[in-house]
TrEMBL record:
Keywords: Disulfide bond, Glycoprotein, Immunity, Membrane, Receptor, Repeat, Signal, Transmembrane, Transmembrane helix. This is Tumor necrosis factor receptor superfamily member 5. InterPro entries: Fas_rcpt, TNFR/NGFR_Cys_rich_reg, TNFRSF5, TNFRSF5_N. Residues 1-31 form the signal peptide. Residues 196-216 are annotated as: Disordered. It comes from Anolis carolinensis. Residues 40-76, 78-120, 121-160 form the TNFR-Cys domain. TNFR-Cys repeats lie at residues 40-76, 78-120, 121-160. Its main location: membrane.
């Protein structure tokens, strides 16, 4: 009714019928949009026709949507073994658990539940071959003259470093760091040969002083 009274006032003010009709239909169109928005459903509901229906809780799936005549609500059922649903949902299928393939070098780190995905990881001595970690590869050993700076984890490979002065490595290993040169002094010995990044120092007995021949 208020819209008609406003239109009459506009006509008295000299506005044309075309302009008044345009403004009137715009007003009525906006009003119908507001009326058509329907109910405001919360995060645990979904809209169906002109009513709010309950979503199924985590660990369950929809087996029957709620009827449109408001005679009942959504029907839910637990996820089957080997599948999960982590959130409130209106989906009719649960998501399958990830398979930790032994052929890819994976093992189960955390078993899946009806509300959580299974977690896989690479077996001991291996690491992920890519960011997605669908397969694993053996950890890289550090060769002679190098040592392990950071040991490999299930996600990343070994980090090697060249042995600095005063240390060495004469083996290939994915776990051993560079070893310090031996201290000849601590063994009451003298250094016969200096160490290298590939070898330890060589220690030996200090030479005995020559005795002068006793006078006859």
């Amino acid at each position: 009714m208020g819209a008609w009274w406003g239109a009459r006032r506009l006509l008295r003010g000299g506005f044309s019928w075309a302009l008044v009709c345009t403004l009137l239909w715009t007003h009525l169109g906006l009003a119908s949009l507001v009326l058509d928005r329907g109910p405001n459903c919360n995060a645990k509901q979904y809209k169906l026709s002109d009513r709010c229906c309950s979503k199924c809780p985590p660990g369950q799936k929809v087996t029957a949507v709620c009827p449109g005549d408001s005679s009942g609500d959504t029907a839910c059922a637990p996820c089957e073994e080997g599948s999960f649903q982590a959130e409130w949902t209106q989906e009719q299928e649960c998501t399958p658990h990830r398979a930790c393939s032994e052929n890819a070098g994976l093992e189960v780190y955390m078993p899946g539940t009806t509300t959580s995905q299974a977690e896989c990881r690479c077996r001991r001595g291996t690491h992920c071959s890519s960011h997605e970690c669908h397969t694993c590869r053996h950890n890289t050993p550090c060769g002679p003259g190098q040592g392990v700076k950071q040991q490999a984890t299930h996600e990343r490979d070994t980090v090697c470093t060249n042995c600095p002065d005063g240390s060495f490595s004469n083996v290939s290993s994915a776990t051993d760091p560079c070893q310090p040169w031996s201290s000849c002094e601590a063994q009451n010995l003298v250094q016969k040969e200096k160490g290298t990044p590939l070898s330890d120092v060589i220690c030996g007995e200090s030479p005995q002083p020559k005795r002068e021949n006793q006078a006859k």
